[in-house]
Amino acid sequence: MLRMRWEAVSFLHWAYDPDVVAPLVPRGLELDQWDGRAWVGIVSFVMAGVRPPLVPPVPGLSTFPEINVRTYVRGPDGRDGLLFLTLEASRLPTLLARPTIGIRYAWARMRLTRRPGSVEYRTQRRWPRRPAAVSQHTVEIGTPIDAAKLTPFDHYLTGRWRAYSRRWGRLFSTPVEHQPWPLQHATVPELVDGLVAACGLPAPDGEPVVHYAPAVDVRLGAPRFVS
């Protein structure tokens, strides 16, 4: 359905009480917990060269930053995936995804600044105006993580190959295909976030679990009816 490249990808995750997150999970899905905790992530990156197959990217429209807030779930068949609580993007046409594929896109004023050894992400929601949402964080990039040393917890937080959504009272799954993440160690020395609270959750508390990946090539499939 769509091809693109995700660049300068940062993952920030916090543990939550499952009872706090569960009210945001649509009927037909259940939280995919780790050691009895639900995990909520802020994932920030550049979507580059977004286009249908065999169609060239459109200059000025096909590349833009995105920040999403997500949690992890299992579908009726037990298959794991992710659930977007919000997706902030700087291109207005992305709002078409709200009614067409049931994903909660918001139009935002965004900036991503790459520097040697770090990336800064900023977003301020434009529409819908309520609830207001502002987020800013800087990720300092560390050394690559040997793929053989990745833990099951690393894979739990980053290795999700389908996104669930509900529209028109039905549950859909969108396949996400890309090579394994080339993960790197990372830290977050600066974080001011209002996105998680705008989703209806308590603001993140404590230090996040942080990962970074320089880039992957991605294919998003068509949404498939689940139930």
Cα end-to-end separation = 21 Å
Average predicted confidence as pLDDT: 93
Number of helices: 4
CATH superfamily: Acetoacetate decarboxylase-like
Radius of gyration from the CA trace?
17 Å
Number of strands: 13
CATH architecture: Beta Barrel
Number of domains: 1
Percent helix among the residues?
under 10%
CATH fold name, please? Acetoacetate decarboxylase-like
Strand order of the largest sheet: 1-3-4-5-9-10-12
Shape: globular
**SS-based structural class?**
mainly beta
Task: Determine the strand fraction and express it as a percent band.
Answer: over 45%
- Listing every helix as H and every strand as E from the N terminus to the C terminus, the arrangement reads EHEEEEHEEEHEEEHEE
| CATH domain class | Mainly Beta
Question: Main sheet, how many strands, which sense, barrel?
Answer: 7 strands, mixed, barrel
Low-confidence stretches: none
Could you outline the blueprint of secondary structure elements for this entry?
Layout lengths: L1 E15 L1 H4 L8 E2 L6 E14 L12 E11 L5 E10 L7 H5 L3 E11 L2 E10 L6 E11 L7 H7 L3 E6 L2 E9 L5 E10 L1 H4 L10 E12 L3 E2 L2
Parallel strand pairs: 5-6, 5-9
Antiparallel strand pairs: 1-3, 1-12, 2-4, 3-4, 4-5, 6-7, 7-8, 8-11, 9-10, 10-12, 10-13
